[in-house]
Amino acid sequence: MDKTTASSDTASGTSNPIQRGVESAGAALHSGIDKVADPARSAVDRASSAAHDSVDKLAGGATHVADRFADKTRRVTETTERVLEGSRSWVQEKPLEAIGAALALGFILGRLTAR
Prior knowledge:
This protein is mostly helical. It is built from 3 helices and no strands.
Protein backbone atom coordinates (compact mmCIF):
# COMPACT_ATOMS: atom_id res chain seq x y z
CA MET A 1 0.00 0.00 0.00
CA ASP A 2 1.41 3.39 -0.97
CA LYS A 3 0.90 6.74 0.77
CA THR A 4 -2.08 7.80 -1.32
CA THR A 5 -3.89 4.55 -0.59
CA ALA A 6 -3.16 4.80 3.15
CA SER A 7 -4.35 8.39 3.35
CA SER A 8 -7.48 7.64 1.37
CA ASP A 9 -8.18 4.65 3.63
CA THR A 10 -7.82 6.90 6.71
CA ALA A 11 -10.00 9.58 5.20
CA SER A 12 -12.69 7.08 4.24
CA GLY A 13 -12.62 5.45 7.69
CA THR A 14 -11.28 2.08 6.51
CA SER A 15 -7.93 2.30 8.32
CA ASN A 16 -6.58 -0.76 10.09
CA PRO A 17 -7.84 -1.64 13.59
CA ILE A 18 -4.53 -0.80 15.30
CA GLN A 19 -4.50 2.67 13.81
CA ARG A 20 -8.14 3.20 14.84
CA GLY A 21 -7.29 2.06 18.38
CA VAL A 22 -4.33 4.45 18.58
CA GLU A 23 -6.46 7.33 17.29
CA SER A 24 -9.24 6.48 19.73
CA ALA A 25 -6.83 6.29 22.67
CA GLY A 26 -5.23 9.58 21.62
CA ALA A 27 -8.61 11.28 21.44
CA ALA A 28 -9.57 9.90 24.85
CA LEU A 29 -6.29 11.14 26.36
CA HIS A 30 -6.77 14.61 24.86
CA SER A 31 -10.29 14.75 26.24
CA GLY A 32 -9.12 13.67 29.70
CA ILE A 33 -6.31 16.21 29.70
CA ASP A 34 -8.70 18.98 28.67
CA LYS A 35 -11.12 18.02 31.49
CA VAL A 36 -8.31 18.25 34.06
CA ALA A 37 -6.54 21.27 32.56
CA ASP A 38 -9.58 23.55 32.24
CA PRO A 39 -10.34 23.84 36.02
CA ALA A 40 -6.63 24.08 36.83
CA ARG A 41 -6.13 26.74 34.17
CA SER A 42 -9.11 28.65 35.54
CA ALA A 43 -7.72 28.52 39.09
CA VAL A 44 -4.30 29.64 37.89
CA ASP A 45 -5.87 32.48 35.91
CA ARG A 46 -7.84 33.63 38.98
CA ALA A 47 -4.75 33.48 41.20
CA SER A 48 -2.71 35.32 38.60
CA SER A 49 -5.35 38.01 38.25
CA ALA A 50 -5.55 38.46 42.04
CA ALA A 51 -1.75 38.71 42.24
CA HIS A 52 -1.67 41.32 39.47
CA ASP A 53 -4.39 43.34 41.21
CA SER A 54 -2.43 43.26 44.49
CA VAL A 55 0.77 44.37 42.78
CA ASP A 56 -1.11 47.20 41.04
CA LYS A 57 -2.55 48.39 44.38
CA LEU A 58 0.87 48.26 46.06
CA ALA A 59 2.49 50.10 43.17
CA GLY A 60 -0.23 52.75 43.24
CA GLY A 61 0.20 53.25 46.98
CA ALA A 62 3.98 53.44 46.68
CA THR A 63 3.70 55.95 43.85
CA HIS A 64 1.36 58.11 45.94
CA VAL A 65 3.76 58.05 48.91
CA ALA A 66 6.74 58.82 46.67
CA ASP A 67 4.87 61.75 45.11
CA ARG A 68 3.96 63.15 48.54
CA PHE A 69 7.54 62.74 49.77
CA ALA A 70 8.91 64.50 46.69
CA ASP A 71 6.40 67.33 47.18
CA LYS A 72 7.36 67.75 50.86
CA THR A 73 11.06 67.69 49.98
CA ARG A 74 10.52 70.34 47.32
CA ARG A 75 8.62 72.55 49.78
CA VAL A 76 11.32 72.27 52.45
CA THR A 77 14.03 73.05 49.91
CA GLU A 78 12.13 76.08 48.61
CA THR A 79 11.40 77.35 52.13
CA THR A 80 15.05 77.01 53.15
CA GLU A 81 16.16 78.86 50.03
CA ARG A 82 13.66 81.67 50.70
CA VAL A 83 14.78 82.04 54.33
CA LEU A 84 18.45 82.12 53.35
CA GLU A 85 17.82 84.65 50.61
CA GLY A 86 15.79 86.83 53.00
CA SER A 87 18.53 86.63 55.62
CA ARG A 88 21.21 87.56 53.09
CA SER A 89 19.31 90.56 51.84
CA TRP A 90 18.52 91.73 55.42
CA VAL A 91 22.20 91.43 56.44
CA GLN A 92 23.29 93.35 53.31
CA GLU A 93 20.70 96.09 53.89
CA LYS A 94 21.27 96.44 57.67
CA PRO A 95 24.71 95.11 58.64
CA LEU A 96 24.86 96.78 62.09
CA GLU A 97 21.46 95.46 63.11
CA ALA A 98 22.50 91.98 61.89
CA ILE A 99 25.62 92.08 64.09
CA GLY A 100 23.56 93.26 67.07
CA ALA A 101 20.99 90.49 66.51
CA ALA A 102 23.75 87.88 66.22
CA LEU A 103 25.35 89.10 69.48
CA ALA A 104 22.00 89.07 71.28
CA LEU A 105 21.16 85.61 70.02
CA GLY A 106 24.61 84.34 70.99
CA PHE A 107 24.23 85.82 74.50
CA ILE A 108 20.79 84.22 74.97
CA LEU A 109 21.94 80.82 73.71
CA GLY A 110 25.03 81.01 75.92
CA ARG A 111 22.89 81.71 79.01
CA LEU A 112 20.48 78.88 78.19
CA THR A 113 23.22 76.29 77.69
CA ALA A 114 25.37 77.41 80.65
CA ARG A 115 23.01 75.86 83.21
